[in-house]
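Hi L., both proteins are below.
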Amino acid sequence: MARRIAPYGLGVHAVGNTVYLYYNSLTKKTHSFLVESSGNGFDFVPFRGTPVLAEPNQTTVDSRKCSDFRFSVMRGKYLATYLHKSHPFVAVSDDLVRWKVLGEIVLADEAGVTAEMADPCMIVPDIRYKGKAVMYYGHGSIRVAYSSDLVHWTPGETVLAPRPESYDAGDLSVGTIFPTDRGLAVVYYVRGDYNGTDSWALGTAVFDKNNPAKLVWRSTIAILENIEGLATKQVSPVGLVHRDNTLISYWDVQDDGIVAIAHPVTGSREDIAKGKKLKLVLEKITSNPILKPIASHLWESKAVFNPAAIYENGRIHLIYRAVGDNDVSVLGYASSVDGVNFDVRHPEPIYVPTKDFELSTIDNGGAFSSPYFSGGAYGGVEDPRVTRINDTYYMMYVAYNGRTHPRVAMTSIPVSDFHNGRWDRWKEPVLVSPPGVVDKNACVLPEKVNGKYVVFHRIFPNILVDYVDDLEAFDGKSRFLKGDYFIPPRYTNWDSRKLGIGAPPIKTDKGWLLIYQAVD
């Protein structure tokens, strides 16, 4: 999941659960950079003081000529490695604000022969090997080096090289390092080519804590391939942090500033190493279809499909989309004990278009065509998703009048009225997505997260996520969903073109299970 947060990033650092974002302002003409902090890695506020990066002679380093900051901790001190005019430097700080440059990093072998270095590098936090600090560095391949003073380093062997015919066949550079119970986890960037443009991926490797040059495991599966949803823009990495079993990557994106993407870290190392994935074997029942159109019901004579499902009082309740002789979508109701054999089916629609934004005025006998027609219908109420919150069912659906863009609308009904068939108790619907854009596949979680309602919806090609204070605040005029976060397609995978949420997510002991639809 991603969110746009700030411009022109230099690097990120996590101390406990607090994330610090260092960046240059695009508007302020200053040699100093800025820092903001966040408790969740996405919502940032200014941090105390103005950071200063100073040479030993107190000269301030021009941060506009710096890049590729990597932060770590060593013996209670904060360390930063960075490139300044393409030369690597190391700095130290007690408070994350005042930074003192220790010097330019020098690579020299045991014979004293120096080597040129202009590569991103990172010092391993609080790890020493044979009494020396350890650093991973390089661009193309990643190597290891050792130092007694953090400035002069002795290069070691190459520990990670590109792998042909793999997601990490491009140029590798170190992103972040953090300890795990199995060793040192190194998350690395992969810069490659995708259809003639730069692309980025993230890979993971684990090294032995007692021998940082010894590779223990390397993933065959990328954490991220390309910057999905942003393929048409210039993208460059800002940094990575690991907190609360989540890896957050930060990217500078053309015109958008900094984008943060969360990558949950789940599953065992052995499962990932073996390339194990969630595997579900589904078998269609032989009695399909479970519902068919009814020719004598003019409102559902042509098609029944795309239902919402509720399990309540020992029965499965379906609110399904129906299309009849007038080619307008309405909603019907059926229920079942087992979800297969539906012994209750209401003879009339339980929800029909009532507002201009969903009342189709298209003459189905004419030649009018629209790219938004779907399911054989020329408009109406489409594709419902229902969530119970306390004693109310909230239903979000696609409202389409055949003329303007399909949008998300919301209504609700008391639980008792729903189960007693009082269909006239549906609340007056209101549009919750903004005008001028196609928005579909919407639902709300059944409980709040961090005190807010969570709404999922879809604007091509992403699943969007909004945190909402009050579901009743939507007025259909000025208060709409904003799409603060997004879950993008993966442009080199089976879900490369567009995504859309399926049913409302289900809460499990491992988090919220989201099943989504996708197009390649």
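That was the first. Here is the second:
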Amino acid sequence: SLSGYLATHLKEDKRSAESSMKYLLFGAVSSGVLLYSLSWVYGVTGTLNPLSPTFWSQLNGLPLLAQIVLGLGVTFAIAFKISAAPAHLWAPDVYETAPLPLVAFFSVVPKIAAATLLLRLGLVVSPETAPGLNSYWGTLWPAIIVATLLVGNLAALLQGKAMRLMTYSSIAHSGFLLLAALAAPWASVDAFRIYGLVYLIMNFAAFGLIQQLHQHTGTDRISQWKGWGQQLPYPAILLLVVMIALVGLPPTAGFIAKLITLSAVFDVYSHTESVWMAWAGGIGLFSTVVALFYYLKIPYFLFFKKNEIFATNHSRISYREVLVSVLTLLLLIGFFRSDLMLEALNRLF
């Protein structure tokens, strides 16, 4: 977190300073709330190990309201790290002003780490160990997921700049990461592992290509990219494949990741009959349809809009294009051989 606050201010201009300060203040508040909540938990139970025999018996001795307040503190901290609604307000400005390689990192790795924490907590918070907290957990997190999916996708529809669009799309993907994490205790962690890996590949590829187009055109405004698909066909075609993967369409690994995640969610609904999980899964399907319109807006301007004025032709393939080509190839292989991807994940973790 500390390195993230400093990295946001690397450009050393006024807007970067404002974004860095906003990120620092939000981060300080979320960390403070988390530490305060955990200090109460430790004071009551004498341990922070949820597998301890006395942990849940001591915690369940608290009034239900006190349990919910402590749970809210942990929830807010996780929601901030994963930029889930309504704790997402810091993300658009920070992502737009920070150096692009750092944004690609921020938009994936901390989110996967925070979602992993939620997954591990979900494995120990059950109706048997914490009946009151489990009821709250099973209602609040699906509601957060629904809000995150709606805010991320609907806001992305309104964006005219590629970086702002990717910022809100990353918020929407946070909702899918949370869906996979929340479904894991009832279904399988495979959905979370696959979605996390595919999301990592998709985001790094997308940001790398957007940075290249920004360097060639001098802007990240999508309307200024019209016709550049003819001038830069190779990166434009790669970006088309990556956008299709981000939507979740075949033949890409993005389709497999979303399919497995939504299947896990509806498996949870069949076991628990949770109305909130059904809503979360339904909104996930709806958000995929919405994503089709804003993701494919970029290839539409690149290939179907005409532009008579271009800068000098850039035909030489850069190292970034080679790297993104490998990532894009992985997205295509992941569709046809998702079993290999899952086997590799099982070996690593």
